[in-house]
Write a structure and sequence with these properties.
Layout (H helix, E strand, L loop, with lengths): L2 E6 L10 E7 L11 E3 L7 E3 L6 E3 L7 E3 L13 E3 L5 E7 L4 H6 L18 H5 L6 H15 L5 E6 L4 E7 L3 E6 L5 E4 L8 E2 H5 L5 E3 L3 H8 L14 E2 L1 H5 L4 H18 L23 E2 L7 H7 L18 H4 L10 E9 L9 E7 L8 E4 L7 H4 L10 H12 L3 H31 L7 H33 L11
Antiparallel strand pairs: 1-2, 1-12, 2-17, 3-6, 4-5, 7-8, 8-9, 9-10, 10-11, 11-14, 12-16, 13-15, 17-18, 18-19
């Protein structure tokens, strides 16, 4: 699935929370409406069959409760997108990645056919993994075991986080995988391209402090001559570049993928490189952009939202700017695109009690025009405004209201974006105030048993406040767009 992922280590975050964020974008043929649900243990399937892969698996009997952002129309499966479980472990699934013929020939993808089922993929992973893990590392290990046994029909990137760590896993062919712990003071940019640019096999095979991998990865590399690293005589034979071994550097990458990494790093590390000079390693079509960087200041939830809404502002590549030529404005795929389905920012706050440590911030539709609603995840159900998404367009749904606003605002960007920005400022402030108030109320609660109900009430209250603001914005945007219609005529019969 097209998407963009941004990971922020806890020492790079303003409040010390690891942040995992991913936009899920639909393909070019249509949109996939999304909703938020809370899956209770009794509702988790014990036998699971994937729709696309056609593969059946028996699941453990002791699932945890977890949140999910599935497709509202389930004809292609669940597609859970992102969630946090009752143990305060977060998972985002998945970023579709690139590969190359050498890898796919050495370990072919397990594609479904009339003769046999396929492996598992983005449709399945959240449902198969998140309910059964109690740490980010356990998430890597469970998913790695599933890949080894069942395989996958696509290349995937998956994030796991807990109160201290973020792990990023990338699949390699049909059954192999690597995972690296995000440096605590770094952020990671992932734009639909295999990204890890340095990997220590000795650590993966030994203590696994920062690297984990398929047990036979060294033999796999050697047998198929996949390691392309040129080493100095004193260099470690265990450290290699997975992006060169397993990834790609195609024209598609240079138009669709690498410009997004360039844009994110240009925003978050503006003085690290001369981003606009077209230099190797710092240009939109560079094959050598760093997988992770240290930001120039601590990052916030708003920074993450802004980066994942980017459309190359301040450059000739911005489709809304008159600065560039028409060819330049259409040269690269923006991060903030029309085809966003949902954005989830998963925040695990280590300085708070487990009962209200986890937050899932949710936005729907095209990010440049949308806002976030915070949701505490230690609850039994999601607020109706996030959960009520159907096939029919309705302003009772945050998804559909957000998509309507974006579609109406886009043709009149310059006229409407100031109002969008005021709405975003107001609603994000409402969100932070609601979280702060709920934290205080929970701290004064008599027992942990009272907490889920308090959090559910807080979720509903802030969702309804943002619903009121969203309805007002929609009315205003509709009025402005109506007055700017092509068939407008100023003279009337008054």
């Amino acid at each position: 699935m097209p998407c963009t992922t941004l990971l922020v280590g806890r020492r790079a975050s303003a409040d010390g929370s690891p942040l995992v964020a991913r936009t899920e974008d639909s393909g070019g043929t249509g949109f996939d409406p999304k909703r938020v649900v809370v899956v209770a243990p009794e509702d988790q399937p014990r036998t699971y069959t994937s729709v696309i892969g056609g593969r059946t698996i028996e699941l453990p009997e002791d699932p945890l409760r977890y949140t999910s952002v599935p497709n509202a129309l389930p004809h292609e499966g669940i597609w859970g997108n992102a969630g946090i479980n009752a143990a305060n472990v977060a998972m985002s699934a998945t970023e579709t990645l690139t590969s190359n013929p050498r890898v796919l020939g050495a370990d072919p993808l397990v594609e479904p056919s009339a003769e046999q089922p396929g492996g598992f993929g983005e449709e399945d992973f959240l449902t198969l993994v998140l309910p059964y893990i109690r740490s980010a590392r356990e998430g890597v290990q469970r998913l790695g075991a599933l890949l080894a046994e069942h395989g996958t029909y696509e290349m995937n990137g998956i994030a796991f986080s807990d109160e201290s760590d973020i792990w990023w896993l990338e699949t390699v062919g049909g059954h192999h995988w690597i995972a690296r712990r995000v440096p605590e003071d770094h952020y990671v940019t992932m734009p639909n391209q295999l990204g890890i640019d340095s990997f220590d096999l000795a650590d993966a095979e030994g203590p696994g402090r920062d690297h984990l991998a398929s047990p036979d990865l060294r033999a796999f590399l050697r047998e198929h001559h996949l390691d392309l690293t040129l080493r100095d005589a004193d260099a470690s034979p265990s450290v290699f570049n997975p992006r060169e071994a397993f990834g790609s550097h195609t024209q598609h990458d240079h138009v669709y993928n690498t410009p997004r990494a360039w844009s994110m790093q240009r925003i978050l590390s503006p003085h690290a490189e001369d981003w606009d000079a077209g230099l190797p390693g710092a240009s939109p079509d560079s094959d050598d952009l760093a997988w992770s960087r240290r930001p120039e200041r601590l990052l916030t939830v708003e920074d993450v939202k802004d980066v994942l809404s980017s459309h190359y502002q301040g450059t000739v590549y911005d489709p809304y700017s008159p600065r560039g030529t028409e060819a330049e404005r259409r040269a690269f795929r923006p991060i903030g695109i029309n085809r966003h389905n949902a954005l989830a920012i998963l925040q695990i706050r280590p300085d708070l009690p487990e009962s209200h440590r986890a937050l899932q911030w949710v936005a729907y539709a095209s990010n440049p025009f949308t806002t976030l609603i915070p949701m505490f995840t230690n609850v039994e159900e999601a607020p109706a405004y996030l959960a009520t998404t159907g096939e029919q367009v309705s302003t009772d749904s945050f998804y559909w209201a957000s998509r309507l606003i974006a579609a109406l605002a886009d043709p009149h960007f310059d006229a409407i974006i100031p109002e969008i920005e005021r709405y975003q400022l107001k609603t994000l402030a409402l969100g932070h105030a609601a979280v702060h108030a709920a934290d205080q109320e929970v701290a004064a609660a008599g027992s942990d048993e009272d907490v889920p109900a308090l959090l559910a009430a807080a979720n509903t209250e802030v969702a309804e406040q943002i619903r009121e603001a969203t309805d007002a914005l929609l009315s205003s945007v509709l009025f402005t767009a109506s007055n700017r219609m092509t068939n407008r005529f100023s003279r009337s019969d008054e």
